[in-house]
Input
Amino acid sequence: MGGKWGRLLTADRIVVGLESRRNRDAIRELAGVLQDDAAIADFKSLLTELMRREQDGWTCIGKGVAIPHVHEDTIKTPCLAIGISRQGIEFGAPDGQPIQLIALLVTPKKHQTQHLELLAALSRLVQVDEVRQRLVQAADAAEVMQIFCGMNK
Output
């Protein structure tokens, strides 16, 4: 599977059926898939930065989507992790909707421009109603991969 998302997202970075019910717990649960990832030099530092970023400002973008993101020195290569919650997670979203889709984006600090471009592209992608609904209803990681890799914009 190719395209921009195929380089950032792998099946082992996808959690269909997040169990957490609160934002920080859900971020920790999803970030856990990156704990032994070769792209992450210092997982504890990554988790600390993710929590700090969430404290500085919510990462909810509405319509049941949150995009926690961070770029820092302990990240070797950009990566994306996707979490899907069937029951919804309380994030305190501005529109009041529980979060069902979390897209966790992490990039090296030296790639700030790439980070912003990926964040913008990811935001645009998950704001498309059809794409978002397909992701939330995906049966497994393979289906999530198919959806993302079919979107090369």
